[in-house]
Amino acid sequence: MTEALEAIADRFHPREQITAIRSLGSGNVNETFLVTHEGSSETGHFVMQRLNTAVFERPDLVMRNLQALGEHIDRRLATPPPELQGRRWEVPRIVRCRCEESAWVEHNGEFWRSITYIGAASTSDEIQDCGHAHELGYGLGMFHNLIHDLAIHQLADTLENFHVTPEYLNRYDLVLKSHTKLGTAEQSACDFIDKRRQGVDVLEAALARGELQHRPIHGDPKINNMMIDEASGKAVALIDLDTVKPGLIHYDIGDCIRSCCNAAGEETTDLASVRFDLALCEAILKGYLEVAQGFLTSWDLHYLPDCIRLIPLELGLRFLTDHLEGNVYFKTDRPGHNLQRAAVQFKLVQDIENQMPALQRLIKRLSDRPVV
After folding, report:
1. How do residues 98-124 score in pLDDT, each as one tens digit?
2. Contacts of 196 (CB under 8 A, 6+ apart)
3. Distances (CA, A) of 107 to 61, 62, 111, 205
4. Are 165 and 310 in contact (CB under 8 A)?
5. Which of 69, 156, 217, 328 has the most CB atoms within 10 Å of its CB?
6. Rounded to 5 degrees, what angle do the CA atoms 211, 217, 222 make?
7. Which domain CATH number covers 76?
8. What pTM was computed for the model?
């Protein structure tokens, strides 16, 4: 434990009762620590995070969203939906400062907050099997089930244009103009984007036509944000809620599938191992539709194949842009790291495109209602 971390943790729990502070998780944006403390009768934990204010420019609005989300889910869980099937479902709660009326700490220009720790459950960076995939789909579906009726005016848009693919393309074009010479790998990635410019607005165009609608979304429901009960193997929580905001649920569905259906993972350096696993996709969608189909429209179902292809394309575009900008958004640990990440996502897009007819048939088969 460093003196600075101890001082910050002391604002939430007495320093003399804190026994350990260790790094937690593998996120690309915030710094996260698990604080272990001893109370009067038992040992407990809380999660302490330094929010990246270069990404979240209004952390106070992030905290307001967390409060609104928690209160809404509390009301929903007061009469648990039948789809919950008697299992537990938890939501990280804000841990307020102990000696002041605040839900966060500002220390040396940094923004720190603490949330409750969900015990007896863990996350994974890699998909295990179709059973695991089903639970990931169920977990995302349950999260959407619990928040789909939360009025979006209660949520601030803390990340303007987040998951709006045409805006990422515009940013990429602007950044690319400052590069007069590209390496071979960079040029190959740019060529990949150029061939797929048409259609990057497929979801936003559907929104403009009224075919899709904004709802509350998680924003980043990748595999390692889903907590699985260590005893039952069931999904019990979706964490990392900083990106909760109004948006299209298709972004969530596409991102969940993107992060789960490439067993090689987004950090692999072996592009030959990257492939889209249709069986895992089926398991995720089965789990999701079991608990979410009640509020989905026919148009929602119609655009599922598009979002499954679009989101890895969008992430690859973001990785490529960050590489060209000098790695200002995503954490990297070596030269060319974001360029390699982009290549992985583009390979995944290519494999999804190759399997698109099968994917479309799969979604029609899983849907009880006809797709438009």
Report:
1. 888 788 988 888 999 999 999 999 999
2. 313, 349
3. 18, 18, 7, 43
4. yes
5. 217
6. 115
7. 3.30.200.20
8. 0.92
